[in-house]
Amino acid sequence: MSTDIIDERSSKISQPVFIGILWALTDTSFFFVLFRVYVQISSFRRLFLDDFLVIFAWVIILSAAVIWHVEHKALYELYAISSGTKPFDFGFLPRFNEFMRLLAPLQILFYSSLWCVKFSFLVFFYRLCSRIKAFRIWWYVVLFCTAAVYIASVGDIEYKCSFGGINYILEQCSQLKHIHYENRSFWANCAGDVLTDLLILSIPIIVLWKTRVPLRKKVILLSIFSATVFIMIVAIIRVAVDTTYDQEINVAYVESSIVEYRGKKDFPKSTVHVQSDVEVSTVAVSQIEENKK
Predict the structure, then answer these.
(1) Could you please report the per-residue DSSP string of 64-106?
(2) Which of 10, 109, 129, 269 would you label with 119, given CA atoms 20 to 30 Å apart?
(3) Cα–Cα distance for residue pair 270/235, rounded to 1 Å
(4) pTM score, two decimals?
(5) Of 172, 157, 182, nearest to 247 (Cα)?
(6) TM spans, by residue (predicted)?
(7) In this structure, what is the dihedral angle of CA atoms 188, 191, 193, 196, given to the nearest 10 degrees?
């Protein structure tokens, strides 16, 4: 990893802020999920499959937060060494290698949490409209596309730069070709994320368009389902702002950099943990509102 990139980014998110935001977001999404469970049990005396998928998504988020809480010190130690505020010693290398071995699993956890939310929406829509044949056909098309994008997103992770060992990581993974591959994969996965959200959003739109309900109710229902648009905006912000093709993705930014936003030009390039928490919180509320209709 090139030190000039680390120097440029390292001071923008301090350790306490990083951990504070990590747990604030995790706790916030937990209360949304808890509220969802309470409403579902109060209203229906049971939980449905889509509820369990949301709960599982939050468990994944919690697991990722715990891993980051335990292992983030190696990342900030790397920043300190790279910026010259801490002397290098060879004892750091095993800690750095251990940290790098966690990056691929953390990416898998991230994508798994997002896709649990997507599948929760799909299960929810199927439960509402499965009796319509045309809907079922389109639903299976969307399900296939959503599952395929998940497999591709997990499959294009550069596993060798996580599990390849310290020598390979230091010698190969900071080279431009690896940085380009990482950024292309990140952008492609973001595009797949947004595309699958649009496909999922098309399901209630198609159903409502063909359903004889008052226009006012259609608008209300569409506004509820359009909460997913906010999720898509967060996904786009992850890669659309302050990105360059030749620059490595900063992993501290990737987890919780939303705190730096003050309307500044230097808004961080990615908000991965933020997006996971936003998705879980959004689905926890939007499906409750629709169940009430």
Answers:
(1) HHHHHHHHHHHHHHHHHHHHTSS---TTHHHHHHHHHHHHHHH
(2) 269
(3) 8
(4) 0.77
(5) 182
(6) 17-39, 51-70, 102-125, 137-155, 186-207, 219-241
(7) -120
